[in-house]
Design goal:
InterPro entries: PDCD5-like, PDCD5-like_sf. The protein is about 75% helix and about 0% strand.
């Protein structure tokens, strides 16, 4: 029942599919590498700008904050960079100024925790 011509067509088609997947994977890998390179370059530019804006003590404090709360540190970095771009910061940000910025952010973003206790009613419990 095996037709040699049909088998040859199947083999060729299988090779074409494998080649397409290989090319697709290479493109995906290339795109992923390009995205990683762009992200790394953006992070390097960001760190360079921060090193120009922040004093060494402020950078150290921000690095310690980033270890514990990376999202909060990222928010402070964004705030400092935005202020510098708008011309609100004319000199290097000291550690004291960074602390005051952190306190302002804490008061603005303080989350209120609310606990609600719901008790389960037993089937045998009487509400009469």
């Amino acid at each position: 029942m095996d037709d040699p011509e049909l088998e040859a067509i199947r083999q060729r088609r299988m090779q074409e599919l494998m080649a397409q997947q290989g090319v697709g994977n290479q493109q995906n890998v290339g795109q992923q590498k390009a995205q990683d390179d762009a992200k790394r370059e953006a992070d390097e530019r960001r760190q360079l700008m921060l090193s120009q804006i922040l004093s060494s003590q402020a950078r150290e404090r921000l690095a310690r904050i980033a270890l514990v709360k990376p999202d909060k540190a990222r928010g402070v970095e964004d705030l400092v960079l935005r202020a510098a771009q708008m011309g609100q910061i004319t000199e290097k940000v000291s550690e004291e100024r960074l602390i005051s910025l952190l306190e302002q952010i804490n008061t603005q973003t303080s989350k209120q925790t609310k606990v609600t206790i719901q008790r389960r009613r037993s089937v045998l419990e009487d509400d009469d």
